[in-house]
């Protein structure tokens, strides 16, 4: 099996208007939980797609590492389509 390690740090969304009132602590906790769940679902999907692509391209199961640190996007520090591709070399920052 392969364990993907990812340190999620939520970023504020500047595209949404600010609420008129500060959200309650319970609402802020619920919003954070929802954000973490969406990020988890995205990471899970990216990991499955990455494994599928690796084996479709003829990858060797013995060469799969036990632990892989997910590479966040250099632009938004979130996940992108290449974040979970453990067999590709890390791309240099532009």
Task: Explain what you see.
The protein has 94 residues and is mainly alpha-helical. It is built from one helix and two strands, in the order βαβ. The longest helix is centred in the middle third of the chain and has 32 residues, at 25-56. The two termini are 33 Å apart.
Q: Can you list the strand order of the major beta sheet?
A: 1-2
Q: What fraction of residues sit in β-strands?
A: 5-15%
Largest sheet: 2 strands, parallel
Number of helices: 1
Question: What class do helices, strands and sheet pairing give?
Answer: mainly alpha
Termini separation comes to 33 Å
The strand count comes to: 2
Give start-end ranges of low-pLDDT stretches.
Answer: none
Q: What percent of residues adopt helix (DSSP H or I)?
A: 25-40%
Give the overall shape, derived from the CA principal axes: elongated
Radius of gyration: 17 Å
Which sequence of SSEs, written as H and E, runs from N to C? EHE
Please give the domain count.
Answer: 1
Average pLDDT level: 89
Topology:
Elements: E1 3-5, H1 25-56, E2 67-69
Parallel strand pairs: 1-2
Structure characteristics:
mainly alpha, two-stranded parallel sheet
Could you provide a short overview of the structure?
The protein is mainly α and 94 residues long.
